[in-house]
Design brief:
Layout: E1 21-24, E2 27-30, E3 52-57, E4 67-73, E5 77-81, E6 85-89, E7 94-99, E8 102-107, H1 115-118
Antiparallel strand pairs: 1-2, 3-4, 3-7, 4-5, 5-6, 7-8
Length: 125
């Protein structure tokens, strides 16, 4: 019964629908106001999707100086959207995440594991 549906305002494609949503390339990135709660101590347990990332150190020269926004995360890789889409293995890189005006450096080996299972791990402080 399509004719009975009410037309909704503010639903144009390509426009953010809620506060904190932005369109990067063709991918929706949710940038919520609570992104500033990320600290060097809790970034391992935090959601990485939507954070700006830059590869600092890697044994493979092809991964050096990749920067962009993390759009997907799997057990062993991060997908970073920069000038193109890069799939970067976590265990071989050191990553700097930009949160607010801070830059947090993390060894990729600490990020290995599915994002939902990293919450259960205990890390030495």
């Amino acid at each position: 019964m399509r004719r009975n549906r009410k037309r909704r305002k503010n639903r144009a494609p390509g426009r953010p629908q809620r506060q904190g949503e932005t369109l990067v390339g063709r991918t929706w990135i949710f940038r919520r106001p609570d992104r500033d709660r990320v600290t060097p101590k809790n970034i391992v347990w935090h959601e990485l999707i939507g954070l700006k990332a830059k590869i600092i150190k890697s044994p493979h020269q092809g991964f050096m100086h990749i920067e962009g926004v993390v759009i997907d995360e799997t057990k062993n890789t991060l997908k970073i959207l920069g000038d193109k889409l890069y799939t970067v293995p976590k265990d071989q890189v050191e990553i700097a995440f930009e949160v607010g005006d801070k830059e947090i450096m993390v060894d990729g080996k600490e990020l290995i594991g599915r994002p939902e299972m990293r919450l259960k791990k205990r890390w030495r402080k």
